[in-house]
Amino acid sequence: MESKTRYRIKPQTGIAFELKRGQILRVIDSEGEQVSDVVAFGSGGSGRADASEWLSSGRTIDYNNTIYQTTSHILYSNLSNPMFTILEDRVGKHDFLLTPCSPETFEILYEGHEGYHPSCLENLVKNLERFGVKEDDIPTTFNVFMNVDILPSGELRIGPPLSKSGDFVDLRAEMDLVVGATACSAEKSNNHSLKPIDLKVYG
Amino acid sequence: MESKTRYRIKPQTGIAFELKRGQILRVIDSEGEQVSDVVAFGSGGSGRADASEWLSSGRTIDYNNTIYQTTSHILYSNLSNPMFTILEDRVGKHDFLLTPCSPETFEILYEGHEGYHPSCLENLVKNLERFGVKEDDIPTTFNVFMNVDILPSGELRIGPPLSKSGDFVDLRAEMDLVVGATACSAEKSNNHSLKPIDLKVYG
């Protein structure tokens, strides 16, 4: 199938767009070792986001009984409706625990950081605004390609993404959606090398 | 310090109440091996929940760099503000990954289940309604005493809570809050024995 729509998300930026039920969103790590924070809201095909139905990490982790979502897993909304099905996954390691990096992320977690730093939260808010999404509507994102291990103590260890140049994940929309996505701004997530993310929409 | 306010949450029910900044909420597993799902919203002391500021699993896990929150950890809101500080924790194992059990939880995860089953989601909604909270506002709850292990594969393993009769957690409110809490309705979370939860408020 040919992709009619392609987007390039430049380093440390984001994008938002509509996705129709049945369309497939391919998230591509074009250069390797980059993370894309993805969030979605129901739209009912209205062209506006319905902020009352959002992609839910908790429902997804719960119903799939795993913190690592991969091929054939369904990503659920807070209302327990399927939002996406993962049709294909060339990497197999994505995070659904952590929120998009925010100005506070750099203050709290980045020693020696000073001044302004771009963030996924800001990039999601900036792009989702025109669909009616506010900052406080943004839930925990599906952090595609983000490589998070959990030690037996519960401590998180963030490693370089396992994705190599050209690796992708295919997400089929199970309802009409408004989707936001970023090329992650946080150096710890992508091995200190900020890169773009490419998206293709099929169907 | 003497507790002026005490609540008993009967098995498979919930409660909601206001908590003022500086007050300490003690969540007590009176009989042992029971789970309490706790959620909170900012209130600004208005007596109403501000649904735009809610307890965030993602921000908390992120900023504390662990999935297991215990003594001295701060529980953050979606706006990166401290909501609670854990002052004392007699158990040391609580879950912040899973959503409150819902009607769909029993359909999807409980083999052979049929018909109506009480759920924490329903009990939170029923009690938080009078503070202006809607079902779709409920985020991933802080599941006090819930014993979830993560296998290296990412799979979750839910065991009986480690809490013994009388064990408790003390949460200091860092802002004016509306709090919802349950005595969990899901048999897998509490070793198939549904029990009450006791709450005391200090200060």
How would you summarize the topology of this molecule?
Two copies of one chain form a homodimer.
Chain A: E1 3-9, E2 14-19, E3 24-29, E4 36-42, E5 50-54, H1 57-64, E6 74-76, E7 82-89, H2 103-109, H3 120-128, E8 142-144, E9 147-150, E10 156-159, E11 167-173, E12 177-182, E13 197-202
Antiparallel strand pairs in A: 1-13, 2-12, 3-11, 3-13, 4-5, 4-8, 4-12, 6-7, 7-11, 9-10
Q: Identify low-pLDDT runs of chain A.
A: none
Report the principal-axis shape of chain A. globular
Helix/strand class of chain A: mainly beta
Name the biggest interface.
A-B, 36 and 36 residues
Q: How do the helices and strands follow one another from N- to C-terminus of chain A?
A: EEEEEHEEHHEEEEEE
Q: What does this entry look like structurally?
A:
The first copy, chain A, is mainly beta. Chain A is built from 3 helices and 13 strands. Chain A has helices at residues 57-64, 103-109, 120-128; strands spanning 3-9, 14-19, 24-29, 36-42, 50-54, 74-76, 82-89, 142-144, 147-150, 156-159, 167-173, 177-182, 197-202. The longest helix of chain A has 9 residues, at 120-128. Chain A is globular and about 45 Å long. The N and C termini of chain A lie close together (8 Å). The mean pLDDT of chain A is 96. The A-B interface holds A 52-53, 56-59, 61-63, 65-68, 78-80, 97-99, 102, 104-105, 108-109, 134-136, 138-141, 150, 153-156 and B 52-53, 56-59, 61-63, 65-68, 78-80, 97-99, 102, 104-105, 108-109, 134-136, 138-141, 150, 153-156.
